[in-house]
Amino acid sequence: MRRSHNLKTIALFGSVLALSACAVTGPVDLGMPQNRLDSPEAYGAFGAGRIHGGLRSTHKVNLTSDYGTKLISNSQPGIESVSDLGIGLGLGLLSFIDLDLHDNFGAKGYTQLKVQVLGKNRRESKPGNFSFSLLGAYASNTIDSEKGSGFYNIFTGQYSGGTATYGLQSNYAHLGFVTGYKIDENFLGYGGYTKGWTSYSGSQTLLNGNSGNFFGSIKQDLYSLGLLIASNKEPDPKNTALLKYASPFLQLELDLSHLVAGSASKTQLNGAINVGMIW
Q1: How many helices (H) and strands (E) does the chain have?
Q2: Across-strand partners of 94?
Q3: Per-residue pLDDT tens for 88-129?
Q4: Spans of all domains in the chain
Q5: What pTM did the predictor assign?
Q6: d(CA 179, CA 101)
Q7: Is 270 helix (H, G, I), strand (E, B) or coil?
């Protein structure tokens, strides 16, 4: 009899924990990259390009800590800087135009077009080359429906039953420039500036049934200073393969980012290390 009573007590205690501790909804974040990792010199030919990856930083803008119990904040979201990993792929379209894909794991990837307007491209540049390029990028992301369910919390007396949902549409763009100087065959110093924007909108229903619409914007000023190290020796003229210009590279960058989201803002200095193969 006593054993049966103990089993019932354990079962009741387990049920209480399940009802009070269950959490199946979570935060809603938007990420904006804090590093640009570009070069002022275009790749130099159709099919030329690079593949790369490394350590980055991302601004994480927290719209709500829990979409099931708290409405998304348009006026004062949380902002923090987090270390991140990223990858990228670039291809030359013309001798002075490049198309690049950048993807930070903590932020939505974007597609960027670069147009070199001054100086020689990478394949033609020599020490003393001054180069200047314009940048433009865009990305769009849609979350149609994110769902979670919850329970009544007997400790707080708050009802969290039912189903929570939210839908989110975000658009990112940036415009800017990057300029640099070829120090010698292997070293290219550069600096640049980009102005970035993210706009977002959507709707949300809490676990308790309350609902609402939201919209907002995020603005970023990003200043970059970096060094690109890669071999740029003249290839053997008898080698006609596309990869005759191939070289491993190392890119070091320091970035100052100022982010504004509603009435919240954050200024952060971060570095990035990028490695890969350029051809």
Answers
A1: 1, 11
A2: 97
A3: 999 999 999 999 999 988 888 899 999 999 999 999 999 999
A4: 2-278
A5: 0.83
A6: 20
A7: strand
